[in-house]
Amino acid sequence: MNPDTKRRGDAGSTVRPDTSIRSEGASTSADPGGASGTRPERLWPYLLLGIALGVVFTRAEVVSWFRIQEMFRFQAFHMYGIIGSAVVVAAIGVQLIRRLGVRSLTRAPMQIPGDTFRLPGWQYWLGGTAFGLGWGLLGACPGPIYVLFGSGVTVMAVAFLSALVGVWTYGALRDRLPHT
Amino acid sequence: MIDFLTRPWPWYVAGPLIGLTVPLVYLYAGRKWGVSSTFRDVCAATFPRDLDYFDYSWRGRGTWRLTMAVGLVIGGFLAAATGPTDVAISSATHADLAALGLTDFSGLVPAELFSWRALTTLPGFLLVVVGGFLVGFGTRYANGCTSGHAISGLSALRLTSLVAVVGFFVGGLISTHLLLPVILGGGS
């Protein structure tokens, strides 16, 4: 087992990776990979993925403050088409992986969140709204902050640092904020 | 083909490509795709103090996504270097933003608000610094951002993600229709 697998779940948060489906599969199938069970995870696929997404985000203009304004003013279908079709494609992929019990290339367990219909707690209402307030002002969510910096909007470095301060503030106040 | 690569891409090309990311990342090493956790990783790596929230193995849990974030920066550079960045927004949005005082519609973002020079103005400061803070704070409070909740979360049919996305829109609508007119009106 990858020693980090158990720790990848967000300690203290309410979202837990659903490893029950995968661990069942992992224990029943013969594993030629050896005693460790997992194969090493390389980093270059993630670097390539980031580059590809950076190009897509820029070409599709989802990094544009103008496009985000257009979205929040309901004046074009563009952003809704992108998010909607992304969700549909992702959902089909996730359902196929689940139904077919596909294993990952490295044999690490699938961390697909379970579709438990728990009543969402305060953290989703309040945290989501706080994020939305920021998204509406900055016009960029976390991915586009990186992409815009690379595309030459270097002032996004300040937005990045502010976001870090925001994350750190959350880390410091977490016990005092309503979550459930 | 080259022409297509350098022109703006329609939603039905970009959306499915972004959506494919989720199953691809699962298929490679079972990871749930999301970007905002990289902010937490950076905090954990640089300034964890003794906060429980940053007491985890950021190398083990975060190296993959930090690597992806480096790729996002490179991808943004490559795309901007090889194609036009002007955005053809709808005439209605153009008119609304012009009414708020914007005059320069070139580039991916308005330089009047998002540039080092604009950072010293009140509107530029509020949009970048306060906006950035809220994005960071909100995304960890809600435990996900547009990638983690709107795309990864909704694709796994999670009710919590749906609520988070509703929150994203409530907040965005408040910022766009209530805060922005005040911020831009007060600065010009």
Distance between the termini of chain A: 32 Å
Provide the domain count of chain B.
2
SSE order of chain B, as H and E? Answer: HHHHHHHH
From the alpha-carbon coordinates, what is the Rg of chain B to the nearest angstrom?
19 Å
The gross shape of chain B turns out to be globular
Characterize the main sheet of chain B.
none
Assembly level: heterodimer
Name the average pLDDT of chain B. Answer: 93
Structural class of chain A: mainly alpha
> What is the tally of helical segments of chain A?
8
Largest interface: A-B, 132 and 134 residues
Compute the separation of the termini of chain B in Å.
44 Å
Order of helix and strand elements from N to C terminus of chain A: HHHHHHHH
- Please tally the β strands of chain B and state the result: 0
Principal-axis shape of chain A equals globular
Portion of residues within helices of chain B:
55-70%
Category from helices, strands and their pairing of chain B:
mainly alpha
Which regions of chain B are unreliable across 5 or more consecutive residues at pLDDT < 50?
A: none
Briefly, what is this?
The complex is a heterodimer of chains A (180) and B (188). With 180 residues, chain A is an all-alpha fold. Chain A has helices spanning 5-8, 20-28, 44-59, 65-72, 78-100, 122-138, 142-151, 156-173.
Please give a structural write-up.
The complex is a heterodimer of chains A (180) and B (188). Chain A has 180 residues and is mainly alpha-helical. Chain A contains eight helices and no strands. Chain A is 58% helix and 0% strand. Chain B folds into two domains: 1-83, no CATH class; 89-188, no CATH class. The longest helix of chain B has 29 residues, at 159-187. The model of chain B has no long low-confidence stretch (mean pLDDT 93). Chains A and B meet through helix 3, helix 4, helix 5, helix 6 and helix 7 of A and helix 2, helix 3, helix 4, helix 5 and helix 6 of B.
Any descriptors?
heterodimer; A: 180 residues; mainly alpha; 8 helices; globular; disordered N terminus; B: 188 residues
